[in-house]
Amino acid sequence: MPTRFTRGAVATAAALAMTFAAACAPGSSNDKPASKAPNAVSTDVAKAGNVTLTVWDQEVQGGLKQQVDTLNKQFMAKYPNVKINRVSRSFSDLQKTLRLALSGSNPPDVVEANQGYANMAQYVKAGMLLPLDSYDQVYGWKKRYPKGLMDLNSVTQDGKLIGSGNLYGVSLNGEIVGLYYNKEKLAKLGIQPPKTWAEFDQALATAKGKGELPIAFNNLEKLPAMQLYGILQDGLTDKESVRKLVFGSGGSWSDGPNVQAAQKLADWTKAGYLTKDPNSRKWDDTPVDFAKGQGVFMFGGTWWAPDLADRMKDKVGFVLPPAAQAGQPVSTMGGESLPWSITSKSKHADVAAAYINFITSPEAMDVSVETGNLPVLAAPTKQPSLPLMKEVSTAWTELSKNDGTTPYIDYTSPTFTDGFGGALQELVAGKKSAQDAMKAAQDDAAAFQKKK
């Protein structure tokens, strides 16, 4: 996930990183084995007595916020003895504060902990999250979810390997990084939604030639360029190669197709296809700018769809990224939203597990659809009504059918957002070549693999 990230002040982020690193360093007071799953669990929430369950999430936009609000009210109505203390923060704020909160003496009970080596794996290694395997035995999450989705939320107890090991979270929504387009602008330009990269390149040239900004793109936080790069990478190489790179099981970031993807991003910048000075503009402002008419196209995740549907109504469309050739299956980044996890110090782990089960139940998938979101599993009774969400649902179905999901590339290492994202910032600023940017990616990935 989401990998939705906004960089705060450099000094603040550095201080947080140093504090967490010290807390997790060998020989520190927090250097301890991963937490163990409880031997006995209870599903009887009513017998837990009066409980205040503190939940930290990052669902602050439009339908995402409404979805969690609705599910929280339903849970408290079912269990009047439980009060949910919801702390809702933007993705960036959650990332900046969650690590310190988890290392404190009174952390929240339930948190959305981002997948990957930089977050979930580090929390697991430090013993900050509770394994959910015992709860899975009674709630049956692995029976409801495809193995690939469960693997995304799994980590070995030493934090060295993601994609296997114990289960540490359950997700509610599905995610795709795809292509949004302004229907009115395409109509005026005489352009159809592009099906191939060749058609897309022609559309960009046409838009630029007629005075339009081809692609809305803000990159202050580095991750936007990583996602845009990842989309180009998926179009130039095969999905298994991307998966091996991210999970550290083979390949090199400096191989030919990966360099070609970086070169494509550089070429778009030089051609004036991207927002001017993107490295100075916030990622969260991208959909706001796009809704105001700045940009014919916008690459972005489906987490932005509910808000865009509200702002633009039927003027916005969504498709998967273009294919190399017409009719070929497409791969793109995606999978599932940030998982809901239980902190190891929670005094109400059984209630927290019941809460997670409730907000990821089949009935919750219906709520996801009703609030304009994309449920990770098929909703049993509801279908999307908004045109944009119908397009998102169609894209999700197509991607799932072709097993076309590739992992977010920032999962590659705890430092990849800086190590590679920083290089991509220099690339779009015209200060670094494609070859040098990919060398930075390979160096960062290799250094992490060596330490594991």
Structural overview:
- With 452 residues, this protein is of the alpha/beta class.
- Helices cover 45% and strands 11% of the residues.
- It contains 20 helices and eleven strands.
- The strands form three sheets. Strands 6, 7, 8, 9 and 11 form a five-stranded mixed beta sheet that branches. A four-stranded mixed beta sheet has the order 2-1-3-10, sandwiched between helices. A two-stranded antiparallel sheet has the order 4-5.
- Strand 1 (51-57), helix 2 and strand 2 form a beta-alpha-beta unit.
- Helix 2 packs across helix 16 (362-370) and helix 19 runs antiparallel to helix 20.
- It is globular, with a radius of gyration of 21 Å.
- Residues 1-31 have low confidence and may be disordered.
